[in-house]
Specification:
single chain, alpha+beta, Pdz3 Domain, 6 strands, 49% helix
């Protein structure tokens, strides 16, 4: 029994260390994304002009390096996320077998892995604002859409357009503890643009 408990502690420490690595990778990707934004480009825009010469309106070397580093970090992030998922599954199985309870940190990470989109901004007085959406909320369910059937932002746009005036159940994760909230969002016309009044971006 003592050996099993020690193994469980070791596995949990490993998952927590991986979580730290994951956060660090995400922060690096965000910083590099800022480099691209400063140059006014993303990951796909050409770095040469119509004549085939390097563009003189951006720092080509800086952009090329940032793109390369982002791709490498995204691959690292996928691998770390996979290891976290495996570690969490193993931990939950061990805890279920031993009758122990999960820690709030590992539970929060389990919930986070189900998120597929993020609220990047909410307009005051909009349907999203009235429903209680906040900037930086993570979305795990948007009506019938969840991480297993999410096919990009067009799937959300299509669902919203077919749900004007109807309540959509949204499941959110909020704050450092990733507390879970269920809200009802009704897409409708308002004084601003669109029918939601918030910007949703994929993770």
């Amino acid at each position: 029994m003592a050996t099993e408990a020690l193994q469980m502690i070791d596995h949990e420490l490993n998952v927590r260390n991986l979580m730290v690595v994951k956060v660090n990778i995400e922060q690096k990707i965000n910083i590099l994304g800022g480099v691209l934004s400063t140059n006014g480009v993303g990951m796909t825009e050409p770095l040469v002009d119509r004549d085939g010469y390097p563009r003189n309106d951006i720092d080509v070397y800086q952009v090329r390096k940032a793109r390369h580093d982002i791709i490498c970090l995204q691959n690292d992030l996928k691998e770390v996320t996979r290891k976290i998922e495996e570690g969490l599954h193993r931990l939950h199985a061990e805890r279920a077998e031993s009758g122990a309870t999960s820690t709030s940190e590992t539970d929060a990470e389990t919930r986070r892995l189900k998120a597929f989109a993020r609220i990047s901004s909410v307009e005051r007085g909009s349907p999203a604002d009235q429903a209680g959406l906040r900037s930086e909320d993570l979305i795990t369910n948007f009506g019938s859409i969840h991480i297993d059937n999410f096919n990009g932002m067009m799937s959300i746009a299509g669902l919203v357009q077919n749900s004007i005036g109807k309540a959509l159940k949204i499941r959110l994760l909020r704050g450092l503890s990733l507390a879970q909230y269920d809200i009802l969002l009704v897409p409708k016309s308002w004084s601003g643009q669109g029918v939601l009044g918030c910007k949703i971006v994929p993770l």
